[in-house]
Amino acid sequence: MKKLFTSQDAFEMQAVRSELDALSIPYMVKNEFAGGAIGELPWQDSQQEVWLVDDSWYARASKVIELFIQKSNDKAVSSEDWICAECREQNGAAFDVCWQCGAEK
């Protein structure tokens, strides 16, 4: 068994699990219900971890994790305001089209 992914964020954990489920990659979650023990256990010992059940899936599963992390990083970058190249108007991160002139991001 190999550890594949660890996160304190429950939403990230669920997203990774969904990706692995969609590809029928066998895994197990360690410390899934240990969050309530934080304070009695060190946080490192209660953090959720995704482990591969079968090591032969490691190449495929690590690619899934790599793409997931890349998508997460892309979303973090896109959460910043941007300036339109056409009219120089400042637009919020939620907009893909300039509200002033209609040009795309």
From TrEMBL:
Determine if Zinc-finger is one of this entry's keywords. Answer: yes
What residues does the RanBP2-type domain cover?
78-105
Could you list this entry's UniProt keywords, alphabetically sorted. Answer: Metal-binding, Zinc, Zinc-finger
InterPro entries registered for this protein in UniProt: DUF2007 (IPR018551), Znf_RanBP2 (IPR001876), Znf_RanBP2_sf (IPR036443)
Which Pfam families does this chain map to?
DUF2007 (PF09413)
Q: Name one GO molecular function term.
A: zinc ion binding
Q: PROSITE patterns this protein is in? A: ZF_RANBP2_1, ZF_RANBP2_2
Q: Does Zinc appear among the keywords?
A: yes
Report the domain of life of the source organism.
Answer: Bacteria
* Protein's UniProt name: DUF2007 domain-containing protein
Species per Swiss-Prot/TrEMBL record: Alteromonas portus
